[in-house]
Write a structure and sequence with these properties.
Two copies of one chain form a homodimer. With 371 residues, chain A is of the alpha/beta class. Helices cover 41% and strands 18% of the residues of chain A. The longest helix of chain A is centred in the last third of the chain and has 27 residues. At the A-B interface, helix 13 and helix 14 of A face helix 13 and helix 14 of B.
């Protein structure tokens, strides 16, 4: 039911193109997955996603389990039917969200007790529970329940969290029976290379349909992230898609694809849009900037998205300043389109064995957002 | 440049169908105009309006003059180009909004001094200024500057406001030179029938391309509104479109069309949507109602709008509860589509001389919103 095929490889980096077949269609890799936290990519509906040629989106297990609850979504026919989105969906395990609740949680080897951000009610997530919820949601790709330890964890705690994650993935694998859902394990180990290596070996041996790298891009710094990827990349199973969780600036896409990554998700394009920011000609720009007031250009020169084809910076700036929902939506469309086009161009460059050249050309021109 | 032609008349009521030709196209009457206060119908863009087959929309002079200012919009090529909406647009005169500022204004025969709701800065609107702003905005139909006196004004004040409105319309007519914009006068007179008759006669004699009735649906009660319309309808110029300002519940559309009205605008369909309400099978319903939680039906049985074709009440309820912009937009699309379809059916029934029958059938089934 799931099949990953590599179609081309870069001769100078670890970049590759491929396709991952799922029950709801084929995903071309590398791929960028817009985040639909609460079963909608903010400001968009499923028709918009189809118009944008989205190949896969992500939804959040934690948020949907808290409200409206996985049982309702199952009763309504599962996420695909409920959202009326008939392409692949990936649900995270809820781990990342639960562990970000910090002072409201109690971690044991059995699972995690936490208080809902909505009403403070207590919940208990276990690996089995995370599987059960995701089975009910019905996504094509589901994630193993992991402990995402903070970037500043000491090595001793990082090791403990990693071992717990290893224990939990075995429990997930054992519990998960639905063959129409691909279970991906998540490599942990914070910033410690020996732990990351150990975790990569452990997760690779499980021989699941794909493999994810979690706990990066959470404050450890870009240089550290790239180094960790370089360390573990040679150990990853070549014939499985490699999903780097939570990453997605344009510069990170290039750097991580060149280090063998295939799948990405990030809230940035949608979140930037809701703050009036957009991918401009060579950097992220802010629409409220006074220079856009009487600017009749599109957001980005030569951009072929719906927004740029139809509206000027001047009009869009007005919408953002007036807090008009229309503006947030039009920027969201542009930002997602931009990343999709970028990924398409990256795929093309890999196929033509021009990826390092295209990467250099793009990054020379692009003013990145350091962090 | 402007031409109103009546194509059919109801034999039992004053309902009629017609077409009003403007520089940006023909408007079939009766017509409903969605309100695009700040140069956008909230949550929608011009492509959405075209998809909905909107024939004309309204924009607000007061809001646009306050921000971003009419000079910017003129510099950007006028409202049509700026919004990328190439069908007819109507701008109100700003009078209604200015007079709703109440304690922040000073009325003289020359004009109105008021403080902006944005920053408290003082502004002075005169009939000439209202024309100048609307000339710069560039709508197809522009409105004369009027004093919209409160529904509870005594007769003496109502008379004074009416006389001022008459004086002002003459100044508007004198100032307005742009032949590609049709100037409509606004009948005032609060709830006093003799004043309304006097104002109707005065405005009719101006022989402008259309005529509007203002100051109704502002708290005087439905019965009073209908009676006033009955009183003035026989005096209105038959060969001009009659625009009843600010009216637009389904029941009011029927009642006012049967009293000779041709054009309507109302924020209700868009505002209801943003409060999670929608035109249901036979009344306005609230999506948050628990009965919709697992309801797989569309918002309205047999509705052919994009929203009803693609999404269930259950999913839409979730979006509204989660405050997702997508939900507000999908309800807006439904609500506007519903009114457009209703108006289309009303036009058809008038053409087939079945309007009183259709009106009775609809209103027997529809549970209205009293006020």
């Amino acid at each position: 039911m799931f099949k990953f095929e590599i179609s081309s490889k870069c001769s100078k980096t670890l970049a590759r193109t491929g396709s991952f077949t799922t029950p709801h269609g084929v995903i071309k890799t590398p791929t960028f997955m817009p985040v639909g936290t609460k079963a909608t990519v903010k400001t968009l509906d499923s028709k918009d996603l189809n118009d944008l040629n989205a190949e896969i989106i992500l939804a959040n297990t934690y948020h949907l389990a808290m409200r409206p609850g996985e049982d309702l979504i199952k009763k309504m026919g599962g996420l695909h039917k409920w959202m009326n989105f008939n392409k692949p969906i990936l649900t995270d395990s809820g781990g990342f969200q639960v562990f970000s609740l910090k002072d409201k949680l109690k971690i044991t080897d059995d699972g995690v007790e936490f208080q809902s951000h909505l009403d403070g009610n207590k919940h208990f997530f276990t690996p089995e529970k995370a599987m059960e919820i995701q089975n009910k949601l019905g996504a094509d790709i589901i994630m193993a329940f992991d402990e995402c330890a903070p970037a500043d964890s000491d090595q001793s705690y990082a090791k403990k969290a990693m071992e717990r994650t290893h224990d939990w993935v075995l429990r997930c694998k054992k519990f998960h029976k639905n063959e129409s859902q691909a279970l991906f394990p998540i490599i942990q180990g914070v910033i410690y290379k020996d732990l990351r290596v150990e975790s990569t070996k452990f997760m690779t041996e499980l021989d699941l349909p794909g493999i994810a790298i979690g706990g990066l891009s959470v404050g450890e710094g870009k240089k550290t992230m790239y180094e960790i990827l370089e360390t573990i990349a040679p150990l990853l199973p070549e014939n499985k898609p490699h999903y780097l969780m939570g990453v997605g600036t344009p510069e990170d896409l290039f750097e991580c694809i060149s280090r063998g990554m295939d799948m990405f998700d990030c809230v940035l394009p949608t979140r930037l849009a809701r703050h009036g920011s957009f991918y401009g000609d060579n950097q992220v720009e802010h629409l409220k900037n006074l220079k856009n007031r009487d600017n009749e250009n599109p957001l980005r020169k030569d951009c072929t998205c719906e927004t740029c084809q139809n509206f000027t910076r001047s009009y869009l700036r007005h919408l953002i300043i007036e807090n008009e929902i229309t503006g947030l939506r039009l920027l969201t469309i542009h930002n997602i389109y931009f990343l999709f086009e970028l990924i398409k161009k990256i795929r093309k460059s890999i196929k033509e064995n021009q990826f390092p050249h295209f990467k250099k050309e793009f990054l020379n021109n692009w003013i990145g957002m350091e962090k």
